[in-house]
From TrEMBL:
Source taxon at top rank: Bacteria
Keyword Transferase: no
Keyword Transmembrane carried by entry: yes
Residues annotated as transmembrane: 21-42, 48-66, 78-100, 131-148, 160-177, 263-287, 294-316, 367-386, 407-424, 436-455
Alphabetical keyword list: Membrane, Transmembrane, Transmembrane helix
Protein name per the record: O-antigen ligase domain-containing protein
Length: 490
């Protein structure tokens, strides 16, 4: 058991009866993917797995005892396409490696041991990846159902997500001080997972590349871009979240310290998506705010560059080298190798007639080739249907209610998920972290809660309209009695 495990296991045991706190702990533990809570041989249990299993055990026990949640029907309706994809994935991981055995060449999960492609055959990667996927899917459904409870504060859970962003920024600055000034940095705490290849000594010329608590700079940049895009959007929408405005420059600075091409491209795509999002949501007044934010950001960046050049002129050659290496990324050997892996993975789609080689049989370099080569066209189309349906329901839900906790969660979570998917499309074969699935669960729960709110209002209006004729009839009878009384006396 590692130091992280010595903290998480007792904490989750003490707070087991408070499942909502388990989700907060999961978001904070999700920023330590390169650490391990428990080491089993050459495998490490991710820290986020500990609060997730504690949460799932409590909620499943409640389900066995007959506890139900108010938004279960909406949650299951939204999750149904994803559940079909998971069922197809688990079934295909058993069939496809045997159906196309020794017929195609694949990149294994642990390519370091073989150094190249191997013939397709059933392996332990199918079992291990199926287990991870099953845990993620069950956690997604259980968390979404649980979060529809009226006593759960979704906005507080989103604020914890932003706090995790502040923690990653602090860790990045700490590591930068360690790489530049020799400040002590606990490598054994952040990189205790033996199943991860940690790249924490990379440099871009004279500039150290920062990976924070993640296994590589690209993974750290992907998380920071997620925080950055989410924070920018909620600030533009006018939500008052503590220290959210300051998180924008802080996360941007930490992302720049990673010198990750993935992070830079993701941010560039996010900037291009901001006007599109403003038009799509009908918030045309945000276009002016977006323009002002970009202008202010460029002005602050220019001032910062002038100050740095004046105080430390030796930074200029280093910045030029980083810019040149980023611009010439396509000519690097690592880019060529990753592109070749993606091309090999895409060729598997045609070789398997669009069915894929099975989940866990092939490891690509980016998201789309990784999905198409493993779960095939059927699984990829299913995920597209799920994403499209979820996005449409989210946009419809935010239009039905005024600004509030549920709407703020939708406004903040959707940009975060989009940013993570953009980064994964550039440099990650899958998106399998539990904090990512918790964000999806928060989005589904927010939609279900808005449906419950609107349904309650509709029932109240129907009741009022039903009572109106009753009171009108009583008033008419009273009026007839009053008019008949004088005639009787006469």
């Amino acid at each position: 058991m590692t130091i992280v495990g010595l903290i998480l296991f007792p904490l989750c045991l003490l707070l087991w009866m408070r499942p909502q706190l388990m989700l907060h702990i999961l978001l904070l533990a999700g920023m330590l993917p390169a650490a391990a809570a428990l080491v089993l041989g050459g495998l490490g249990v991710q820290p986020a797995m500990v609060p997730a299993m504690a949460f799932m055990s409590f909620v499943m026990l409640q389900w066995v005892l007959g506890v139900h949640y108010p938004g279960e029907r909406t949650v299951m309706t939204l999750c149904f396409p994803f559940m079909l994809v998971v069922a197809w994935t688990l079934l295909a991981s058993l069939i496809m490696p045997r159906l196309f055995m020794n017929q195609v060449m694949v990149w294994p999960q642990k390519s370091d041991s073989v150094g190249g492609r191997v013939l397709l055959a059933p392996n332990f990667g199918n079992i291990s990846q199926d287990m991870y996927l099953l845990i993620n899917a069950v956690f997604l459904v259980l968390a979404a159902r649980f979060l529809t409870r009226s006593d759960v504060r979704l906005d507080r859970l989103y604020r914890t997500f932003l706090i995790s962003g502040w923690c990653v920024v602090g860790i990045c600055m700490w590591q930068f001080a360690h790489r530049v000034g020799g400040v002590p940095f606990p490598d054994t705490f952040f990189y205790s997972n033996p199943g991860w290849a940690v790249l924490n000594t990379q440099t871009a010329g004279p500039v150290p590349r920062i990976n924070g608590s993640f296994s590589e700079p690209a993974a750290c940049a992907a998380f920071l871009s997620e925080i950055l895009f989410s924070t920018v959007w909620i600030v533009l929408q006018g939500y008052s979240v503590a220290r959210a405005r300051w998180l924008i420059p802080a996360s941007a600075l930490a992302l720049a310290c990673t010198t990750s091409t993935t992070g830079f491209i993701t941010v560039a795509v996010e900037i291009c998506l901001l006007p599109v999002a403003a038009i799509a949501t009908g918030a045309m007044q945000l276009l002016g705010n977006i323009t002002r934010m970009i202008v202010v950001g460029i002005a602050l960046l220019a001032c910062g560059v002038l100050v740095v050049v004046t105080v430390a002129p030796q930074v200029v050659p280093a910045a030029q080298f980083v810019f040149q290496s980023t611009a010439e990324k396509k000519d690097s050997q690592s880019y060529q190798d990753r592109s070749q892996v993606d091309r090999d993975s895409m060729s598997l789609v045609a070789e398997t007639y669009g069915l894929g080689v099975g989940w866990g049989s092939n490891r690509a370099s980016s998201l789309l080739p990784g999905l198409l080569s493993t779960i095939g066209v059927v699984g990829a189309v299913g995920l597209l249907v799920f994403d499209t349906k979820l996005l449409r329901r989210a946009m419809a839900a935010r239009r039905r209610v005024p600004p509030g906790p549920e709407r703020m969660v939708i406004e903040g979570v959707v940009p975060a998920l989009v940013a993570r998917l953009i980064a994964a499309s550039l440099s990650s074969p899958t998106v399998g972290f539990l904090d990512f699935y918790l964000l999806i669960a928060m989005l589904i729960a927010a939609i279900a809660r808005i449906d419950l709110i609107c349904a309650g209002r509709a029932r109240a209006q129907v009741a009022q309209r039903a009572l109106a004729p009753v009171y009108a009839t009583a008033a008419q009878c009273h009026a007839r009695v009053e008019t008949d009384t004088p005639q009787i006396h006469a």
